[in-house]
Amino acid sequence: MRPLSSLSENVFARVARLRHDRALHPRGTVTAATLQVDDPESALGAALGTGVHPARVRLSRGLGVPQPLPDVSGVAVRLDRGAGRVDLLFSGTPRHQSTLLPYRSGSGLLWLELERRSQTRFVLRERRLPRSVRTVGVLDIGEPTGDDGSPYDPYLHQAPGLGPVKFFSRIREAAYVGSRRGRTG
């Protein structure tokens, strides 16, 4: 294993072991949701198809510090598909989250973004460099159902033709492995 990957895995395993929970985003609220993809020309439309997709969403705070202390807001989206599931992870402010690393698609690199419009609605966009932004759909969330502790992992659960880039991916993947190992080991 490469030195940075090994360091990342060990650090995240220790944090998870100390917390007896995930290293990051330790507590969250899960809700039923729907992801409406409207743009068939978008990378998300090409990967998932247009229309309404049933989803499960986990809302969390990155470090898990109590309110009113500031923290990173996390939105994890799980889509259960016939051929497997797709996990999309977003982090940012309470009003705006994005995938931290770009995604590779058939049409190039992009970031997925969520903009919160209300307590239950997010607008979903694709952003390409240098300044191309397109609205591709909406994410509507329902009432909280509790947190089942299920892990979300965009590296293990990708849509065909749409996945996180490999840049820094070994370090991030090692962090996921370490966090899982710390919780179970």
TrEMBL record:
Any GO MF annotation of the entry: heme binding
InterPro entries given in the database record: Catalase_sf
Protein name per the record: Phosphodiesterase
Native source species: Nocardioides terrae
